[in-house]
Automatic annotation (TrEMBL):
It comes from the Bacteria. Keywords: 4Fe-4S, Iron, Iron-sulfur, Metal-binding, Pyridoxal phosphate, S-adenosyl-L-methionine. The lineage of its organism: Bacteria, Bacillati, Actinomycetota, Actinomycetes, Streptosporangiales. Its cofactor is pyridoxal 5'-phosphate. GO terms for molecular function: 4 iron, 4 sulfur cluster binding; catalytic activity; metal ion binding. PANTHER family: L-LYSINE 2,3-AMINOMUTASE AQ_1632-RELATED (PTHR30538:SF0), LYSINE 2,3-AMINOMUTASE-RELATED (PTHR30538). This is KamA family protein.
Length: 454
């Protein structure tokens, strides 16, 4: 791998990382042309949902002349109507009267509790147990061959996306956090479960950690013979590409990546790009060149988000640019049923139309992408299309992944509903009274049941 920096990069490339938080919101939203009451409403939302941005995003990615309608601005800055008006008004009144922090926190927590902070049973159904029947901290094991690990030091990001389904990790409430610093416990679990061939480091963002920290998590995994791949879920390539180019430990980080591939493991760098503008800076291209030089494979994924990327042209451009840069388009997700979901959600019917209109215009190299996909309680459900069977208009669906592996790849059908935005809003079609995942399974009756229908 060449660690030389050949590409021309922006003047801000070598600057030290600077984060902006809620206390900076007023001065930043002034730049977007918001009035005093609008700024107060934004601050109210930011006291319930997390806000964090950095100097690179502010200086290089946001078009302030187009704000607040600029898509990158909307990706990272709270919007006044992301929460119900009565909730925004309640928090705004507390801010206006300089209420005690304890009172603000109490009100914010009441609102958060209604926002489904842990979708898909991730705190109940997915946490495995060790031989001593104790939970394996910071680990989720939903699908037989894959486990997710949440490093304790990686439970933040270079900047927060307003739509993030893991928003509960970032609001400072210990009861909502899910993480561990015990890599030995994970390694022991992997040795006891050779069916697990892939570990996904996630969070937050593992790439917020310095090389000295992240290596303490990754290097022990290289000794697990049954492990075939290590994935790193990250937004760093979009929000702080300096991490791989000019940061003090950029070269050491890339050498760590080389260790993974040299050990015979596949290193899958799962890059989150929500809009093609995030890939435009030269610094991103240079970071991509260096990451690919380690032998890592860069795969891309993002949710479909109303007001930000809910048109086919944006996705077509994004997938084309990703292929051109050597990335592998992987997933288009449906916005999860958590947080300000009602603000960002796109109907499944429209989501399928956007996916198809973009998919039909790209080459086969970009058709590695799957979607629109819902990461729901029983598994990852893909909307394959809208069709008519025996005079009934239906959604055609299948599981890409499932708690019950026997469901994977088997088509099933739901009544067409032009307003439905999530799996559990759908009803069985063609005379069926239950979906396949609702039929009790000897393997795991409780996990396959939909709590909403129980």
């Amino acid at each position: 791998m060449s660690l030389t920096h050949d590409a021309a990069v922006s003047p801000s490339a070598g600057r030290r990382f600077r984060a902006y938080t809620t206390k900076h919101l007023d001065e930043l939203t002034v730049r977007a042309g918001l009035g005093a009451e609008e700024r107060l409403a934004v601050r109210a939302v930011a006291n319930v949902l997390p806000f964090r941005v950095n100097s690179y995003v502010v200086d290089e990615l946001i078009d302030w002349d187009a704000a607040p309608d600029d898509p990158i601005y909307r990706l990272v800055f709270p919007q006044a109507d992301m929460l119900p008006p009565e909730d925004v008004g309640r928090i705004a009144d507390l801010l206006r009267t300089d209420a005690p922090r304890s009172e603000l926190n109490r009100a914010a927590n009441e609102i958060r509790a209604r926002l489904n902070p842990h979708p898909a049973g991730q705190m109940e159904l997915n946490v495995p147990k060790a031989d001593n029947d104790e939970p394996v901290q910071g680990v989720q094991h939903k699908y037989a061959e894959t486990v997710l690990f949440f490093p304790k030091q990686g439970q933040t990001c270079h900047a927060y996306c307003t739509y993030c389904f893991r928003w509960a990790q970032f609001v400072g409430e210990p009861d909502l956090k899910f993480a561990s610093s015990e890599i030995d416990q994970l390694v022991a679990y992997l040795r006891q479960h050779p069916e697990v061939t892939s570990v996904l480091l996630t969070g937050g963002d593992p790439m917020i950690m310095g090389e000295g920290v992240i290596s303490r998590y990754i290097e022990p995994l290289l000794q697990v013979e049954t492990l075939e791949s290590i994935r790193i879920g990250t937004k760093a390539l979009a929000y702080w590409p300096q991490r791989f180019v000019t940061d003090p430990d950029a070269d050491e980080t890339l050498r760590l990546f080389e260790k993974v591939t040299a050990a015979g493991k596949n290193l899958a760098f799962m890059a989150h790009f929500s809009h093609p503008n995030e890939m435009a800076p030269d610094l991103v291209h240079e970071a991509m060149r260096r990451i690919r030089g380690t032998g890592a494979v860069v795969r891309t994924q993002a949710p479909l988000i109303r007001t930000i990327n809910d048109d086919a042209a944006t996705w077509e451009r994004m997938w084309r640019d990703q292929v051109r840069m050597g990335m592998v388009p992987y997933y288009m997700f449906v916005e999860r049923d958590t947080g300000p979901k009602d603000y960002f959600a796109v109907s499944l019917a429209r989501a399928y139309g956007i996916f198809r209109d973009a998919y039909k215009n790209v080459s086969g190299l970009a058709r590695t992408v799957r979607g629109p996909s819902m990461s729901a309680t029983p598994g990852k459900v893909c909307v394959d299309g809208v069709t008519e069977i025996y005079g009934e208009k239906v959604f055609s669906l299948h599981f890409i992944q499932a708690r019950d592996p026997e469901l994977v790849g088997v088509p099933f059908f739901a009544r067409y509903d032009e307003n439905a935005t999530w799996l559990f809003e759908l009803e069985p079609a063609l005379g069926a009274t239950r979906f396949p995942y609702e039929v009790p399974s000897p393997a795991d009756t409780s996990a396959l049941a939909d709590p909403a229908r129980a």
